[in-house]
DNA sequence: AAGTGGTCTAGACCACGTG
DNA sequence: ACGTGGTCTAGACCACTTT
């Protein structure tokens, strides 16, 4: 059984990988331009882009819309089952978090939300859309849908901090159980634009649907992460 | 703020999407050849491939090495925290599972495994490598590392069924807690070849590290899934 | 044997980000 | 204003799958 021949773009991938290692390029550092790379490695831009895309898929480098290629930082560890705010677990890992609220509004429950939350269509609902950074790289955008019946006046508060912390401290709300969904998807439309990535860039979707002790809908969280930004780590079955 | 102009390949994506809908192409059905599509939509193969790749990233279609483009089946729902075998939850969802053992061997604990399991380097360990199908599409490959101290003779058993079921029924072994890791990655090398996808195809990695009541290492499970094949769904915090 | 997808070339134009 | 990445053309050859 003979091996298929090893295509040029994969050879380039290997050489780029080695080159990045020997140059000791560090997190968020920029690579030379594609034209410069294609000259240096004696190939065309199309082929060097294929090699770069390969390394992008592997998570070694990433691109920021029309600005160039950069070294990907280490993945953030994330446990969606814990009740710890973004700012806290980012800080715990030695990085610098930042949150930007892109919009917040009082709106009405649409049919799809009614279906999973049990709220009636048309019921008032808070909707917050935020972007989260780690070390000034935008890693995810997040839609929060919160039941105003449980926390009137929430939108007047600053939403740049942890919503969970606020719910716990100001309104004494805690989730009793959660339904979590996770799957890979392509970042599109608003999410892709907000994260400065191409339409169709690989991402990870995380949804958390939280209910209180009485089984009432508390909050829905829909997160769109860059594919290379996180590593989910959960411990299951341990009773503390 | 004027919109950036909408590139041809995204227009093609939309037209392909519509075309697939109106043709009512069903799961696993093959699309026309790239040359035929590029004629039909009056463009070049490079551009039609960009549009196809977009739909691939979105999970609507997939490719099987050099054979063509096909309609992606519905995602399989999967709860890695439950103790239910692959065959069972696939069947529960109305699909047909199949498992193929690609190899199984008795080997020695390598350093990386020692680090996470607590076993000493060089200790005997079972290693099973399997491929799992749903409706005859290979969705994942899986490495199992099992502590033979707890289940001598396991390799003589058929490994085409649920290993967990076997551990429970034949050896009365149950995990007390588990460390689960999940993140997107690129499928490469052995994993890509075994799943008949390109080097660098998008995938999802799921690792489960299981310990028994005494805190002893039981089993390590490393799964490499196609990115479009599954939706993880977990309920947390509910006490039955 | 024919046709397919995978790879690759050598150009080109454009919109956008950065100086 | 310049250079960048993003897009696109019109070809070509090859390895592999299917007929």
UniProtKB/TrEMBL annotation, chains A, B:
Pfam families: GntR, UTRA. It comes from the Bacteria. PROSITE patterns: HTH_GNTR (PS50949). Keywords: DNA-binding, Transcription, Transcription regulation. Residues 6-74 form the HTH gntR-type domain. InterPro entries: Bact_HTH_transcr_reg, Chorismate_lyase_/UTRA_dom_sf, Tscrpt_reg_HTH_GntR, UTRA, WH-like_DNA-bd_sf, WH_DNA-bd_sf. Signal peptide: none annotated. This is UTRA domain-containing protein. It comes from Marinobacterium maritimum.
């Amino acid at each position: 059984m003979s091996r298929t021949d090893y295509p040029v773009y994969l050879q380039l991938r290997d050489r780029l990988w080695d080159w990045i290692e020997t140059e000791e390029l560090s997190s968020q550092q920029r690579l030379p331009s594609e034209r410069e790379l294609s000259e240096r490695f004696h190939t065309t831009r199309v082929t060097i882009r294929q090699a770069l895309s390969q390394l992008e898929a592997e998570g070694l480098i990433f691109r920021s819309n029309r600005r160039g290629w950069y070294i990907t930082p280490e993945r953030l560890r994330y446990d969606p089952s814990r009740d710890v705010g973004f700012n806290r677990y980012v800080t715990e890992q030695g990085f610098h978090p930042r949150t930007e609220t892109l919009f917040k509004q009082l709106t009405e429950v649409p049919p799809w939300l009614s279906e999973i939350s049990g709220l009636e269509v048309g019921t008032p609902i808070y909707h917050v859309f935020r972007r989260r950074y780690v070390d000034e790289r935008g890693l995810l955008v997040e839609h929060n849908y919160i039941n105003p019946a449980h926390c009137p006046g929430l939108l007047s508060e600053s939403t740049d901090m942890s919503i969970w912390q606020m719910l716990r401290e100001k309104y004494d709300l805690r989730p009793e159980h959660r339904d979590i969904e996770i799957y890979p998807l392509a970042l599109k439309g608003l999410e892709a634009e907000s994260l400065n990535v191409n339409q169709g860039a690989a991402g990870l979707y995380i949804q958390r649907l939280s209910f209180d002790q009485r089984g009432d809908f508390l909050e829905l969280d829909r997160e769109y992460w860059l594919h290379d930004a996180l590593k989910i780590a959960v411990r299951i079955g341990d009773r503390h």
